[in-house]
Amino acid sequence: AEYMGENRHQSDMNVPAANRPFKHEERNDLYKIVEDYLEKIIQEVTGPKCLVLDQETTGIISLVVSQSDILKKEVFLIDLVERPTKEKFLHLKAILFLRPTERNVNFIKSEIASARFKEYYLIFSNSIANEYLREIAECDKNDVVKHVQEVFADYYVVNRELFSMNIGSTMCLDDKQTASFRPEDLAIINRIAEGLFAVCLSTRRAPAIRYFAQSEACRLIAQKLNEKIQTEYRENETWFLNDRRTLCLITHRREDAVTPLLNQWTYQAMLHELLGIKNNRLDLRKGKASGRDPTEEEFVLSCNQDEFYEANMFEDFGTLATNMKEYLEEANRKRTSSIKIESLNDMQRVLDSMPEIKKLSGNVSKHVALTCEVSRLIEEGELMDLSLVEQEIACSTRDNRIEHFRKVMEVLQNQRVSNLQKLKLVIIYALRYENDDKIPIFIDKLKALEVSPENLGLISQVCQFAGKNSRTSDLFATKDILAMASSMLSRAMKDVPNVYTQHKPFVSTLIEHIRQQKLRETDYPYTNWRNFRDSRPVDFIVFILGGATYEEAKEINFLNRSGSGTVAFLGGSFIHNSRTFLAEMSKFGKETRESTDVKIKME
Description:
By secondary structure, the chain is an alpha/beta fold. Helices cover 45% and strands 12% of the residues. The chain is built from 21 helices and 14 strands.
């Protein structure tokens, strides 16, 4: 009974507002939410301790706090479920922060039986079934389990309003009906629903749910999330009646396949596109630049720990260069500034300023190295000229295929542009002008450039996956007269400050259609949970099955800073750049889910 008591549930739904640990603005910051969960988990267990994690909770924690920060809190050992140490540590208390899975429950049972640690504190990253708790309780013969608690940190925080489920491929879920789903497919669907449920509870929202009707996987995710929220509603009805402003929209990557194919010109998106960010880390060793200090080859990029990165992650490359110059000058002033030492207090001020100066200097070195590498790649691949063609094709609302054909052919004949970039451009053209009789000419040209048949097949695969018959969206605004007029007017009025960033992802249009009550229920039906006072939501949790992008995250950030009062979060099964997206597309129509990369002759 004690194991299954209400105290294990830490969503704070039924706690009076004055007693909740988060302020209103903090519940809109995913970093702060998960960071506070972890702080509470570790600090409430006093004395020397061991932190036991599984593969997923390791990744979830590593994106929010560093290992050194954890070790400062009397954590003397970090153990992994997948590779546990065998010796006993009877002087340590053990905090087990795990996902509530059958495998982890079996691990807990074996741990309790072996009693490697003095005491056990069980923290689950999501709701755990009562039957699992009964199994654990039956094994706890010696009363070594002192605390059981649920928190809702079951997703990977990427930015303050961006999260991921870190599932590299969901292509196995496409074009299937429920009866065709294999157990491993259903496991992915359940994992996504559980992650979305954790997002809802940790941000204290009880959203209405809409989903992309053409995807059975989206429908199942919505249904499972709906069931979880209704169960939570029955247990904490009072709190849930207070949230009638949030919509959870479960959409699909096939609604917009152009965004992950474009070259990017804002800092975070550029780094991911050109160098690849993985778990907030970037490895320059994959680049061609040589002669760099080996200590300057791998960098951590976290807006929670790097003020310059957070301030500039959504800035375009020109603004970034200006800000980088000012940042470098500031660091140089601090490094060369002299403090007159005439007393012990003066000495202390010098000593106190040294860590700050050292940190600032290291941060400057990091961003200088990254921007120099990005600049080198842009120049080598003539990406600025290429991007102009991409933007023109993607943003043009009128049929201009003759001119676009000519410009694509010019790019294909440019020896400095890589085959990967050429292939992406042809795919963008093929999405814009489906079944155009010029596409075979492009394919022949790519064949002559020794692009493999497998990679050439991506052109038809992407069009089949995300062509006009597979999406509900008017992606290029060629059908809606008002949308065409609005797009042309904005360019005429120079509302677009940078031609390289004029493209707007479809997710922005999707949110705007919801606000204007223009999103058809036949395309995005509701589940039976509709918790609104009126029909217009204010806040949004948008999840893209098939992966989100940093360009879409930028639009969500702009929306949150627009002063409209809207709070929006963006999530994806993965965070894509063009390479990972094309690798995913290479599996379209196949059963395999193995992670692969697109191999294209780059010279």
